[in-house]
Amino acid sequence: MDRTRRTVPRPRRHRLLAVGAAAVLAVPAMTALSSAARAADADLARNGGFESGLNAWTCAADSGKTVNSPVRSGGSALQATPAGSDHAQCAQTVTVKPDAQYTLSGYVRGSYVYLGASGTGTTDVSTWTQSAPDWQQLTTTFRTGPSTTEVTVYTHGWYGTGAYYADDISLVGPGVDAGQPPAAPTGLKAGTVTSTSVALSWSAVPGATGYAIYRDGVKARSVTGTSATVTGLSPATAYGFQVAAVNDAGESAKSATVPATTSAGSGGGSTDLPAHALVGYLHASFANGSGYTRMADVPDSWDVIDLAFGEPTSTTSGDIRFTRCPVTECPNVENDADFKAAIKAKRAAGKKVLISIGGQNGQVQLATTAARDTFVSSVSKIIDEYGLDGLDIDFEGHSLALDASDTNFKSPTTPVIVNLISALRTLKARYGSTFVLTMAPETFFVQLGHQYYGTGKWGGQDPRAGAYLPVIHALRDDLTLLHVQDYNSGPVMGLDDQYHSMGGADFHIAMTDMLLTGFPVAGDANNVFPPLRPDQITIGMPASTNAGNGHVSPTEVNKTLNCLTRKTDCGSYATHGTWPALRGLMTWSINWDRFGSWEFQRNFDQYFG
């Protein structure tokens, strides 16, 4: 588990140069417009600068969102990310005059970005750029047909490429009286509710061209039909939903609020853990200077015992082996029969015994489906041989890193991440609801994602930054415990936009508050990592100064717990809630705690006793 401090390069800032001269449209002399006609021209595109989120725009497969960087002007721009065979088209329908000339223009950046118009009644048009590393203007013109009253303007990318950006889209031509906004929708009701989603439906509104869905007063998405499923929600959480109808004249008043509470989820097999649990790693395959501790000698205070470590035969093989500590290194090691018998006795006493995969030396990269399948079969063999309750994922180092094009933690595409998620789901399905799944990432792979995610928009960042987020998010309903290693860490920015460093309760409070509150990923307020349940969180701390950098005294441990569960002793950091159901603490390690006369365990027992 020991790790050295890492830092991430800050993204380079790009200056945007203001264009001082207005664009001039050349009109052939034969069709020159009179000054009166020019005065009648208007920009018909609604929310072309995306300052009102995605209002008036609909993006295929929920591929689009608004971001505050990079932008060409104002405070927002569109980011849309192609996935699979989808081109991430974002479009709006605009009311136009028949037999009239229009100019469509917009600024884009990215690779293979298109701007176009369809349904013109004459010849549909589009223009594109192969590569725009900075903002580039695209412009095209068209004439509407003799009976055309609506056209669709759009942007899209191309499959297999990364995200593209668009801003300041305009459609200039003869304006049309848009009339009045539609009436507010009625009949809103909630249908199927899961731990992370709510299905909604409502009655159609005459004259509406689309609908905006609001969650707790904040716009969540836009749709064209009269039903939608809102996803990415937190388990066991109450929400209020509203819907507004949209047409060319604007947005209606919102509907009456419909409440819905998501289910608690499966809980990851944690239902028979005590309300407050103590988790520790047992050096089962090495001594590490702390001495060997026999399984039978682990005190009853330890509720979850992680066997450290199962390691791969090679980084990319997926073939995990668990080797007991040899007698030459651990003279007091028990034999296999006694070790297995002690595990059985612990489980009979209600304790959970897991195999922990990875650690400092066990780099695991499931880059292929073959490695994924080998991982599943080899881990299953260990679980079955030793009669274990489940699995702990302690991938460190270079095990997880994001591909440059993988920018959405909700829909990962990087093979090592996709294959790990698949493998863990397979193991969960194989062993059923009682299977215990825990994870022990470093802050670099989780909370650092608040500032940096992967290589970043301009490249140059460490691709490992935030790389655990898609794994945690995909498995949040199956995850029993998450115990981030709040040690061996550099300073990390909290939700207060201040850097927090190891050495006291403040660091643990700020890092845990992020997990329980949720946080924007890479600073994007429209892309939030949802909070986890408090019963899923145990705080990772070193058992002693020998165990790792960032050890804190029992007094600081208690301040941390007081702040998070009782909102006392919080110091300068203001938490976003109070969580008496916080599950407990994790430590590296049981062996080092024994070496330190069980100080960590005794303090836990006294606090929760």
Automatic annotation (TrEMBL):
GO terms for molecular function: chitin binding; endochitinase activity. Transmembrane segments: none annotated. Residues 184-265 form the Fibronectin type-III domain. Residues 276-609 form the GH18 domain. Keywords: Carbohydrate metabolism, Glycosidase, Hydrolase, Polysaccharide degradation, Signal. Its EC number is 3.2.1.14. It comes from the Bacteria. The keyword Zinc does not apply. The keyword Signal applies. It is an enzyme of class 3 (hydrolase). Residues 1-39 form the signal peptide. GO terms for biological process: polysaccharide catabolic process. Belongs to the glycosyl hydrolase 18 family. Chitinase class II subfamily. This is chitinase. It comes from Streptomyces avermitilis.
